[in-house]
């Protein structure tokens, strides 16, 4: 149960992180947003990132083996990075129709899966 809760919170966290880091590139298509200056865009992104932390911190606290969770610190970090890249790929394919997945992206994904395998191998 703690493993699934941790993964769910990490997915939510990384969804907000992706919006905070890259959403402004898509939001610029909106007329009102495109008129904002850099400081305003930074503050909006910072506000979105607050929600990232609201999910990331509990995910790490619940998931960390030192707190009774199922994952070591290294496993948590690798899990978070893989989730980040998967969320980013989904966001890119949905929000940026001009971006396409290529063979090298697929090969990279295989290496990520292998990284998770080796990190979680006892």
Automatic annotation (TrEMBL):
Pfam families, per database record: DMT_6 (PF04342)
Keyword Transmembrane in annotation: yes
Domain of life of the native organism: Bacteria
Transmembrane regions listed in the UniProt entry: 36-55, 76-96, 102-120
Record keywords: Membrane, Transmembrane, Transmembrane helix
Record bears the keyword Membrane: yes
Protein name: DMT family protein
Native source species: Algoriphagus jejuensis
């Amino acid at each position: 149960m703690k493993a699934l809760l941790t993964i769910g919170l990490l997915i939510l966290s990384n969804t907000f992180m992706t919006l905070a880091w890259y959403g402004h590139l898509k939001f610029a298509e909106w007329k009102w947003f495109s008129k904002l200056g850099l400081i305003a865009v930074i503050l909006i992104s910072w506000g979105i990132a607050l929600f990232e932390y609201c999910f990331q911190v509990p995910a790490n606290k619940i998931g960390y083996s030192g707190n009774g969770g199922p994952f070591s610190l290294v496993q948590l970090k690798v899990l978070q990075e893989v989730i980040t890249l998967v969320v980013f790929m989904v966001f890119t394919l949905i929000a940026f129709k001009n971006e396409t997945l290529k063979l090298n992206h697929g090969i990279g994904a295989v290496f990520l899966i292998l990284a998770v395998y080796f990190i979680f191998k006892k």
